TrEMBL record:
<keyword id="KW-0813">Transport</keyword>
<keyword id="KW-1133">Transmembrane helix</keyword>
<dbReference type="InterPro" id="IPR003439">
    <property type="entry name" value="ABC_transporter-like_ATP-bd"/>
</dbReference>
<dbReference type="Pfam" id="PF00664">
    <property type="entry name" value="ABC_membrane"/>
</dbReference>
<feature type="domain" description="ABC transmembrane type-1">
    <location>
        <begin position="52"/>
        <end position="340"/>
    </location>
</feature>
<keyword id="KW-0997">Cell inner membrane</keyword>
<keyword id="KW-0547">Nucleotide-binding</keyword>
<protein>
    <submittedName>
        <fullName>ATM1-type heavy metal exporter</fullName>
    </submittedName>
</protein>
<dbReference type="InterPro" id="IPR027417">
    <property type="entry name" value="P-loop_NTPase"/>
</dbReference>
<dbReference type="InterPro" id="IPR003593">
    <property type="entry name" value="AAA+_ATPase"/>
</dbReference>
<dbReference type="InterPro" id="IPR039421">
    <property type="entry name" value="Type_1_exporter"/>
</dbReference>
<dbReference type="InterPro" id="IPR011527">
    <property type="entry name" value="ABC1_TM_dom"/>
</dbReference>
<feature type="transmembrane region" description="Helical">
    <location>
        <begin position="84"/>
        <end position="103"/>
    </location>
</feature>
<keyword id="KW-0812">Transmembrane</keyword>
<keyword id="KW-0472">Membrane</keyword>
<feature type="transmembrane region" description="Helical">
    <location>
        <begin position="167"/>
        <end position="189"/>
    </location>
</feature>
<feature type="transmembrane region" description="Helical">
    <location>
        <begin position="51"/>
        <end position="72"/>
    </location>
</feature>
Amino acid sequence: MRRQPTTPSIPEDPAPAASANALFSSRGAPRSDWQTVRNLLPYVWHYKWRVIFALACLVMAKVSNLGVPVLMKRLIDTMDVGPGDARALLVVPVGLIVAYGVLRLSSTLFTELREILFAKVTQSAVREIALQVFRHLHGLSLRFHLDRQTGGMSRDIERGTRGIQQLISYSLYSILPTLVEMALVIGFLVLHYDIWFAGITAIALVGYIVFTIVVTEWRTHFRRRMNELDSRASQKAIDSLLNFETVKYFGNEEYEARRYDENLLKYRSAAVRSQNSLSFLNFGQQTIIATGLILILWRATVGVAAGRLTLGDLVLVNTLMIQLYIPLNFLGVIYREIKQATTDMDRMFVLLGTHQEIADAPDAPPLEVRGAAVRFRHVGFGYESDRVILDDVDFTIAAGTTTAVVGHSGSGKSTLARLLYRFYDVNSGGIEIDGQDVRGIRQDTLRRAIGIVPQDTVLFNDSIYYNVAYGRPEASREEVIAAARAAQIDTFIRELPQGYDTPVGERGLKLSGGEKQRVAIARTLLKNPPILVFDEATSALDSRTEQAIQTELMRLAQNRTTLLIAHRLSTVVHADQILVMDRGRVIERGTHADLMRLNGRYAEMWRIQARNAVEGETDDEEGVAHA
């Protein structure tokens, strides 16, 4: 019994979506060609009537194609009259000539009908699988994406998707017509000629197929090596371009070019070996075909000389072999392409088979927000088993209040936000929202209830409007502009030549740090979540910009449950509760006044930052005086 599809249905002609685990081994082991084809069949069979009609057109096209040389033989034998024979004009077979043209036209007509019928099947299957890959990647954990290089992964997906399209097209669209052609030709030779014609043809076919398979299997590792080196070169190039400014800072353009060229040289060497092996394969295939054609023509010529065959038979046998030669040669190309396609798809299969570390329970209910109180209940967590990041962290953020978390770098502050979003699951304890453990509710509803303004705001390479509207894509234009106005960025946007349609560049690099932060605030305002997380949202800004952004953040946090992660203590004095963390543990808690009276770690940090701030202001004043 076939397992039911697990991916959500897709509008506009959904194909059955088998789950990633059903399609591919979770270990990412290479799959056989037949297994891959079998996994694709449910997507194709969803359009079974189109497939049936396409197969009928396929058979009709091949029957018509076989009838063409048969009619040509009849035509030649009918016209076997002597030169100058007056009866020639009386025996012109007009019907055979017309039938010859009709059969040629019919072959083309049925072939094109087959392509029309099958085009939607192929493209729909490719669309469904590509979408499944995309969804699966978004369903994988943050740990997975932090361990991957985006350039290489995008190249693997690109090649894998293209490989799927080629595999469907070739295996279910081209191989079958070729096999039908072979069966019809061999069957005709068996019925109408002696066994030698069919025997020679069959031996040539078997020899050709065996040679193609053996050599293609041998040269597959060349293609695999090419893919690895291609991905590696792409990774180096994209990583270097994403860090364009860093490369310029250190003047390392030539160093980056040399690193890239090292991979290109290795790729060139692998590509040359692959091409040489392909040339050997092509020559061997042509040798087998030429040998079979010579033997067939020799046998037919002997038959004509002995009077057993006519000239029409000689032409028919020759034409059949030529007709068979074309699809037979194409079969070799198809097999090579399928092997290359499955090689290209291996890495994407590993992605599709990757275990989804953070997954919803099958019957997980949606989050029910009843005030948005957040509780970290004796949480223990580590990214690695031998390294503890959080140790027995226990606190509550009452609904509508602000809790700030401070501490030195590496104390575990930002990890709290990642666990609240459920990018990772806690090792011990639990995190609750209004009494509901986040591990037992649907992730999409959890994340809809939380808004974040991060330290490093990364924007899409699109317009400012798109990036603000990303907080709630279905929002109206008026709502988007209202959110930008509330974040104090509307005036700046309207002064730009393209206004809200201004592109922000790769990762938002065309905007300043303060402008990107305001965009982040605007899209969070548009999302309008009951829970807010400010993860060092102003630490990378100058003092004046920080003060302006801080005011907007405080206004945004009003009447919302807020987790404020900060390094600068001046930004947390207004918090209802301040937690001081050190080495993954909460060592102090209370209001700003409480902690100053305690005269512990928080008070020490406050005095150090205050002294540094005074020294910084003195340095600024001296710089102005000397100027």
